[in-house]
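Working notes for the structural subgroup meeting. M.R. asked for a predicted model of this chain before we commit to crystallization trials. I am recording the input and output together here so anyone reviewing the notebook later can reproduce the run.

Input as submitted:
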Amino acid sequence: MNILLATFTTLFSVVNPFGAMPVFLTLTEDDNANERSRIALRACIYMVCILTVAFLAGQYVLDFFGINIYHLRVAGGILLMRSAFDLLTPGANKSKVSDATVEESKQKDDISFTPLAMPMLSGPGSIAVCIGLFTSRLSYTGALFTILAFVLVAAASFLILISSLRLTRVMGRAGMTAMARIMGFITLSIGVSFIVTALKSLFNVA
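Returned structure, recorded in C-alpha cell form:
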C-alpha cells in the first residue's frame, strides 16, 4: 500500500491532468460529451500503456546505452524542476505542446494518442519518473502495485478531463492559476528529491 500511495501521489503531480484541460477543451470544442468521454478514455488507456512500458523496459534501455539509473534520476529531477518553474512563474505557465502542434492536431481524426496521451499526460517527466521507480529489489507484488497506481492516476485523469468544462467554469482563471502553482510546487519538491537521493547514492557507490 505504501508503494501504491507513494507512486500515485508522485505520478499524479507530474502528470498534472489539470494542465491538459485547456488543450483538451480546445481540441474537442466541436465534439459532444460522449465523444469527449471516448477521446479521454482512449488517451488514458494509452497513458497507462506508455508508462507501463517505460516502467518495465526502461531499465533495459538504460543498460543498452550504458546509462546509470542514478544519472537518469538526476536528469529527470532537473527536467521536473524546469517544468515546475514554468508552473510557478506568473504568466509563464506553458503548455506541454506548442501552438503549432495544437493547430495541427485540430486536423486529426484522433487526438487521443498525440497530443493527449503523449506528451500531455505521459511526457518526458512522467516517463523518467516511471523508469526511476524500477529497482532490482522491487518484488513482483511491488511491481503490480506500481502498475495499479498507473491505472489509478489514469482513472483520476479521465475524471478530470471529462469534467474539464465544468471545472474550468467553477474554478475560473484564478483557480486554475492557483492549482497550477500548487502542482508546480509539488513537482519542484519531487524534482529536488530525485536529485538529492540520486547524488547520495552516487557518492555512496563511489
